[in-house]
Amino acid sequence: MALREGNTLQGDYSFLMSRLPDDPMQPLEKAGPEEQRFGAWARRLSAGSRARFRLRASFARSLDGQVAAVSVVYLDHGAGSFAAEFSGRRFQTELKGTERWKTAILPIEESGLP
Q1: How many angstroms separate the CA atoms of 47 and 44, rounded?
Q2: pLDDT tens per residue across span 49-69
Q3: Is 33 inside a domain boundary?
Q4: Domain count of the fold of the chain
Q5: Residue 61 is part of which domain span?
Q6: Are 87 and 69 in contact (CB under 8 A)?
Q7: Rounded distance between C-alpha atoms, residue 79 and residue 76, angstroms
Q8: Judging by DSSP bridges, how do beta strands 26-27 and 43-44 pair with one another?
Q9: Which among 23, 50, 38, 20 has a CA at the least distance from the CA of 77?
Q10: What is the pTM of this model?
Q11: pLDDT of the residue at 13
């Protein structure tokens, strides 16, 4: 799912999953290094905040036992970490302050699908 809200592109790609109401994330433009921009899709989540999403049931059913994963693209900015929770598991990703966009690929277990 791409989170789009900025000056150029509007509206998320939500055919696989969607953001739940009361989204605390704020749009962010020109984030990261010049040669590695995600400005049209970047969003900021304040420390201690939680973003929530719902997987589309029709998409989950279409997997029919196939292996699936959540791919999180994040800006490795500063020190600290972020966590993702689903399928009864918690994934913790440490930030190293490289100031580069990175991707965390997190497996979804079948029991976590609707």
Answers
A1: 10
A2: 888 888 778 877 787 777 778
A3: yes
A4: 1
A5: 17-112
A6: no
A7: 8
A8: antiparallel
A9: 38
A10: 0.73
A11: 60
Concatenated DSSP letters of 37-102:
--TTT-EE--TT----EEE-HHHHHHHTT--EEEEEEEE--SSEEEEEEETTEEEEEEE----SEE
> Under a CB-based contact definition with an 8 Å cutoff, are residues 101 and 75 in contact?
yes
Can you tell me which residue has the tokens 């509007």? 10
On whether residue 95 sits in a domain, the answer given is yes
Question: In degrees, to the nearest 5, what angle opens at C-alpha 93 toward C-alphas 88 and 46?
Answer: 95
Q: What is the pLDDT along the chain (114 residues), one digit of tens a residue?
A: 445 554 455 555 666 777 777 878 887 777 888 888 766 678 888 888 888 888 778 877 787 777 778 888 899 999 999 998 877 788 999 999 999 999 999 887 654 444
Q: What is the pLDDT of residue 36?
A: 82
| Amino acid identity at 101 | W
| 32 domain residue, yes or no | yes
22 domain-assigned = yes
- Which residue bears the tokens 């029991």? 111
